[in-house]
Specification:
Chain A: Its cofactor is heme. Chain A: It comes from Serinibacter arcticus. Chain A: It catalyses: a quinol + 2 Fe(III)-[cytochrome c](out) = a quinone + 2 Fe(II)-[cytochrome c](out) + 2 H(+)(out). Chain A: GO terms for molecular function: metal ion binding; oxidoreductase activity; quinol-cytochrome-c reductase activity. The complex is a heterodimer of chains A (about 550) and B (about 350). Chain A has about 550 residues and is mainly α. In chain A, about 60% of the residues lie in helices and about 5% in strands. A two-stranded antiparallel ribbon of chain A has the order 1-4. In chain A, strands 2-3 form a two-stranded antiparallel ribbon. In chain A, strands 5-6 form a two-stranded antiparallel sheet. With about 350 residues, chain B is of the alpha+beta class. Chain B contains nine helices and eleven strands. In chain B, strand 8 and strand 9 form a beta hairpin. In chain B, helix 3 packs antiparallel against helix 4. The longest helix of chain B has about 30 residues. Classes of the chains: A mainly alpha (about 550), B alpha+beta (about 350). Chains A and B meet through helix 5, helix 7, helix 8, strand 4 and helix 10 of A and helix 1, helix 4, strand 1 and helix 8 of B. Strand 4 of chain A pairs antiparallel with strand 1 of chain B. The complex binds protoporphyrin IX containing FE and FE2/S2 (inorganic) cluster. Protoporphyrin IX containing FE binds next to helix 3, helix 5, helix 6 and helix 9 of chain A.
């Protein structure tokens, strides 16, 4: 290499320094031109990552001025805002006011921090939806799904602990509700409450404890898991959407350097920029409007951050009857069911789904090409059903706002939501699944008949037909490239010698579930079907290859 | 259709090939391969790429100016003087920071999209599984390690190791958890500041209340006299807050054993919701309903504050009241049950006569 300019010389020197010490050359060779596929939906995870970085930066700013103490002070008589002068409050609340009104850029950083927290959670949730509906969680990525899921839970913890720090009326009431939920835990509830608050609610310990969790424990865990998450992405290589030239054996896209360095790096600045502009122009959590925490007042229409609403809604929908006293001990199922059992079930279903689906398909192969959601109708239906349950809980968490806004009675809204919580997911599942099957049928039709051209010709026989333009190979591939998944078949219950097979019962259960998943399906057009449809003439009825019509019986063969 | 017949000769991949997704069916279309690359305008004309370059430079310059503007904003607007100045400071620093970042971001993305090569590249994938030789070597390495450790057939050593490691954390965890709960005296939940003769005071100013001040239909937020300035003010307040209402005695349904708990139509109930503890603060005069804003439990104040709707199960505890010699409203005793959310052992406290001695601790 001939180094000519001083700059190139310096660069060469630096490169040599690192290569001879940490073998940088090998790393650069390995990673610099690694190919990443491109799609807008791959940005969702990036947004989560970048808003986390913004949270770290702005959070560090806030720690310089926030005082995590519940010592009571009187707000100075000459400070802003005027309404708070002389009011008794905790140092935590006073320092929040002080950093908002007396630190240049303090209010800005608080607002960016809060908007970033909302964006962080929103992007995690939508990222997770993308992964779910495209089947990106399939082998070998199940573990990364679990890592991502854990980050979601930790994100809830980060948001909750942060929201509680300013010690205003709203955050104090959030803690009050937490205390009530914790107390309902059988046997140890009261002791758990003492453990959290260091004695009776609210005590003087909770803010310092939340502070440690919020700025150290939770972010450190999130950071570590993000590192694992990213390493696994590199190990697995990114999934890609189906398309011509893309297969399960390759990855098609642009090289990390320079394209992704510029795009992803640039996108960090975009996210930061948007959050900064939001922080500059949109007020959020103006705690001086609520005042310092006091156990007595509470405002109607006060809302927690959106990612907590599902819990609020769950608590609201539950009727009070199931609180029982058994042998002198109280079991508050009216609190435990909505606050622990229902979120527990929904989240467990979410975390365990990849393993369930792997069991149901019996497929042990790796999957690197994403599914179009319509091609997996049952999964898509299950996903929409879980989502519907969450959305109904979120709406129920705003039922007072809905009531005042639409002039309805809270009682009737609550009853409607109670009903919808059970019926909604079922309806959503059925409708979504039907919709997916219909879309698949449309795809088949398109492959078999081609595009409509709007041009009508008349045959000698007097018959009119519309001319259809056949798809090109590239167009067709997207519609026929996927592999049909068929229900697992189980052998007979007895072996050749008439002895009952041991795991037969389990196999039956498995095959039932597999049938639930894959019995209704529309298979992609095969070359012979296409050839046959051409042979029969364009305008004939397409034969549908749906298994419930008994056309397909061959069992799938898999390793 | 030669492609189609060709695909029919593809043998199904071995079950052990983990990357064989999409290759199982015999009768399937072949992958047509990457579409031909389409060139962009900026690839084809020098003028096009010059224009893109100019756009990118303008974005970087905009960012530069905005960032400088943010710093100027920091110095230009004092905070802590007026709300306007706080707003101006927030806005100028924020827009400077935001546009500064956004400019860089948009420029970089535009550069990547419009100027950098957009020729798609292809990498091969390899199965995650290590090959058999590597696996065997890994197993051997572990075996060798285990042999070297001489742990095999030494059950006592194994047992001692596991026990020591299992017990060692206790000396860390016990002090941590043990200290977290303070004195762990959870029976404190049972008692409030109320007791015989404790006067009712207005929340938040602490003014004492005479029954004649309490007009029919009015709602009073009440705290025990002596709460303000007391040692554990917030903890005591969190348990002792009371809501007092006066209604026409004819509208009031009272249990016989509570006949002397009210005073001429004035009733006082704990304001701590029996659901999960929010202050029950919204009173509707016509229906005598008290609504908890948190999850909308609704209590009927004219009928023992029983639950008429929502997730709470139990009625709000009633504070027995009367009037003392000086004509002020006072409590006749503490609440006769635990206020607030249910706990596992709350029944233990119900209807126990509370001795002063017990209360003292
Ligand atoms: C991991 C993701 C995080 C989330 C979701 C999050 C969320 C929040 C939220 C919602 C608030 C309330 C803000 C307000 O007052 O309106 C808050 C406050 C705060 N956060 Fe975070 N945060 C995160 C990470 C961090 C980190 C890493 C730090 C420090 C290095 C930090 C430091 C603070 C401080 C000091 C406050 C209190 C300031 C105040 O209330 O004015 N946060 N956080
Ligand atoms: S706390 Fe009152 S209804 Fe939940």
């Amino acid at each position: 290499m001939s180094t000519t300019t001083p700059l190139a010389k310096a660069a060469g020197g630096t490169a040599d320094f690192f290569d001879t010490r940490v073998g940088a050359g090998k790393m650069v060779k390995e990673f610099a031109r690694k190919v990443f596929p491109d799609h807008w939906s791959f940005l969702l995870g990036e947004i989560a990552l970048y808003s986390f970085v913004v949270l770290l930066l702005t959070g560090t700013f806030l720690t310089m001025f926030f005082v995590p103490s519940m010592t009571e002070v009187h707000y100075p008589e000459d400070a802003l805002p005027v309404a708070m002068r002389g009011v008794e409050m905790s140092e935590a609340f006073a320092s929040t006011l002080n950093m908002s009104f007396h630190v240049r850029g303090g209010l800005l950083m608080r607002q960016i921090h809060h908007w970033a927290a909302l964006l962080f959670m929103a992007s995690i949730v939508t990222h997770m939806m993308r992964v779910f509906f495209t089947g990106a969680f399939r082998k070998p990525r199940e573990l990364n799904w679990v890592v991502g899921f854990t980050i979601l839970i930790l994100g809830l913890a980060a948001g909750f602990t942060g929201y509680s720090l300013p010690d205003d009326v709203l955050s104090g009431n959030g803690l009050r509700i937490t205390d009530g939920v914790v107390k309902s835990i059988p046997v140890i509830g009261s002791y758990m409450s003492f453990m959290i608050f260091g004695g009776e609610f609210p005590g003087t310990e909770i803010i310092p404890r939340l502070f440690t969790a919020h700025i150290l424990l939770v972010p450190a865990l999130i950071l570590a898991l993000i590192a694992v998450h990213l390493v696994l992405i590199v190990v697995h290589k990114h999934t890609q959407y189906p398309g011509p030239g893309r297969s399960n054996r390759n990855v098609v896209g642009y090289p990390l350097f320079p394209v992704y360095v510029a795009k992803a790096g640039g996108f960090f600045f975009v996210v930061f920029g948007v959050l900064a502009i939001m922080g500059a122009t949109l007020a959020i959590n103006s705690v001086w409007a609520y005042g310092p925490y006091d156990p007595s007042p509470v405002g109607a229409g006060a809302q927690p951050d959106w990612y907590m609403l599902f819990l609020e809604g769950s608590l609201r929908l539950m009727p009070g009857q199931p609180e029982f006293v058994i042998a002198g001990y109280t079991i508050s199922l009216n609190v435990l069911i909505p606050a622990v059992v229902i979120p527990g079930l929904l989240f467990t279903a979410l975390a365990a789904y990849p393993f369930l689906e792997a069991w149901v398909t019996g497929d042990k192969r790796e999957h690197h090409v994403l599914d179009r959601p319509r091609n997996v109708p049952t999964r898509t239906g299950v996903g929409v059903a879980i989502l519907t349950a969450f959305i109904i809980l979120v709406l129920a968490g705003s039922n007072d706002i809905l009531a005042t806004h639409f002039n309805l009675s809270i009682n009737s809204i609550t009853w409607v939501f109670r009903f919808l919580f059970f019926a909604g997911p079922v309806i959503a599942f059925i409708v979504t699944k039907r919709l997916c099957l219909a879309l698949q049928r449309r795809d088949r039709e398109l492959v078999l008949h081609g595009h409509e051209t709007g041009r009508v010709v008349r045959f000698a026989s007097g018959e009119y037909i519309e001319v259809h333009q056949p798809l090109t190979d590239h167009e067709r591939w997207l519609l026929v490239g996927h592999e049909p998944v068929r229900p697992l078949e189980i052998g007979p219950g007895e072996n050749e010698r008439g002895v009952a097979r041991p795991a037969y019962k389990k196999a039956v259960r498995r095959s039932k579930l597999s049938n639930f998943f894959f019995a209704d399906r529309v298979e992609p057009v095969t070359p012979s079907e296409l050839a046959a449809s051409h042979g029969h003439g364009e305008h004939e009825e397409i034969e549908s290859a749906e298994s419930n019509e008994g056309l397909l019986t061959n069992a799938s063969t898999r390793g | 259709m030669s492609d189609l017949t060709k695909s029919e000769h593809v043998t199904p991949p071995g079950a052990s090939d983990p990357l064989s997704v999409g290759e199982r069916e015999l009768d399937r279309f072949p992958n047509p391969g990457l579409p031909e690359h389409k060139h962009r305008l900026s690839d084809e004309s020098e003028a096009g790429s010059k224009r893109v370059e100019r756009q990118i430079v303008i974005l970087f310059v905009l960012s530069l100016l905005a960032s400088i503007g943010g710093v100027v904003g920091y110095f230009a607007f004092p905070v802590g003087v007026t709300l306007g100045s706080v707003q101006a400071s927030t806005l100028s620093i924020g827009l400077g920071l935001g546009v500064g970042m956004l400019g860089i971001g948009i420029a970089a993305v535009h550069w990547a999209k419009a100027l950098m090569s957009d020729v798609e590249q292809v990498d091969e994938r390899h199965a995650q599984r290590s090959d058999d030789a590597t696996r065997a070597a890994a197993v051997q390495a572990l075996k060798d390690g285990a042999d070297d450790s001489r742990i095999a057939r030494r059950p006592v050593l194994k047992g001692a190791l596991v026990s020591a490691v299992a017990v060692a954390p206790l000396a860390f965890v016990v002090p941590l958890v043990g200290n977290l709960g303070g004195d762990w005296n959870v029976s404190k939940f049972r008692y409030t500041m109320w007791g015989p003769g404790v006067r009712l005071a207005r929340d938040p100013d602490g003014g004492l209340i005479r029954p004649e001040q309490v007009t029919i239909g009015s709602v009073w937020h009440v705290i025990p006299d002596g709460l303000l300035g007391s040692e554990h003010m917030l903890e005591e307040k969190a348990k002792a807050v009371v809501l007092m209402v006066r209604m026409n005695p004819t509208e009031l349904t009272e249990a016989p054993e509570r006949a002397d708990w009210s005073w001429d139509g004035i009733v006082a109930y704990s304001k701590v919701c029996t659901h999960v503890g929010c202050p029950v603060a919204l009173y509707e005069q016509q229906t005598h309903h008290l609504l908890c804003p948190c999850h909308q439990s609704t209590f009927d104040v004219s009928d023992g504050a029983k639950v008429v709707f929502g997730p709470a199960k139990r009625a709000l505890p009633q504070l027995p009241i009367t009037v003392d010699d000086e004509g002020y409203l006072v409590a006749r005793s503490d609440f006769t049950e635990m206020v607030g959310p249910s706990t596992w052992e709350r029944e233990r406290y119900t209807d126990l006569p509370v001795s002063d001695e017990e209360k003292a601790h």
